[in-house]
Amino acid sequence: MTIIASLLRNAQLPDSPSARLDAELLLAAAIGKSRSYLHTWPERIVSSEHAEAFAGYLTRRRAGEPVAYILGQQGFWKLDLEVAAHTLIPRPDTELLVETGLQLQSASPAKVLDLGTGSGAIALALASERPAWRVTAVDRVEQAVALAERNRQRLGLENVQVLVSHWFASLVGQRFDVILSNPPYIRAEDPHLTEGDVRFEPSSALVAGADGLDDLRAIVEQAPAHLQPGGWLLLEHGYDQAEQVRGLLAAQGFSDVESRMDLGGHQRISLGRLPC
């Protein structure tokens, strides 16, 4: 016979920077309850079946597998999203792209594009806040497109379409008022690729050439042909790439070029406007 408090007390996750939170999330999932339930009823008995499921989750977490992949879900913005190992895990810093896009574009009808959508996080967050917008979300990985579409359907967001496309390849002749992207931007030899949760995420969604800028260059070069005059391009990038990305935008003729800081005080996104 095992109680909730005992399971949490004995959970050993020495390599996790958020060990207590991880244990609570995993136990709540194992018993099919919320985290608040764990705090409200710490003396409740856990069945052997649920305790075994929790032990399995802990084993996977100790091996380094991200909690989001173990549970198959992750919160982003105000949404709960299904996630899987063939897409990046949506992170709080990326919400800065959503916040900035909402600030720059009015709530009136607009066409918006999310490049490399993965789980659909950016596109679905924007669509949930702006029902009048028509949001297109693209990814070159068919599994990611299927995942984003499942999230779209579950959330009931009819103002989003999800397509297979490698950047702009399937969007010939289409123009948008806002284009956003969180593309791969890590250098191929970056040592962080062998550390922490990143080890389990798809390298194709992380790595972009020797300097990490290959995909950012491609997007900046191609975006003017797909933006309305006066339209905005917003890009997430590495903490130390802001100056280079601003340079790419300026060289391509974008105006009002600037960078904005993430929750950690790093210049995490850069943006520019196509002249009218």
Structural description of this entry:
- Helices cover 36% and strands 21% of the residues.
- It is an alpha/beta fold and 276 residues long.
- The protein has two domains: 2-63, Ubiquitin-associated (UBA) domain (Helicase, Ruva Protein, domain 3, Orthogonal Bundle), CATH 1.10.8; 82-273, Rossmann fold, CATH 3.40.50.150.
- The strands form three sheets. A seven-stranded mixed β-sheet has the order 7-6-5-8-9-11-10, sandwiched between helices. Strands 1-2 form a two-stranded antiparallel ribbon.
- Helix 9 (214-222) links the parallel strand 8 and strand 9 (227-236).
- The model has no long low-confidence stretch (mean pLDDT 90).
Task: Record the SSE blueprint.
Layout (H helix, E strand, L loop, with lengths): L1 E2 H7 L8 H13 L3 H6 L4 E2 L1 H15 L4 H5 L1 E4 L2 E4 L12 H10 L6 E5 L5 H9 L4 E6 L2 H14 L4 E5 L11 E6 L32 H9 L4 E10 L5 H10 L3 E7 L5 E7 L3
Parallel strand pairs: 5-6, 5-8, 6-7, 8-9
Antiparallel strand pairs: 1-2, 3-4, 9-11, 10-11
Helix pairs in contact: 2-4, 6-7
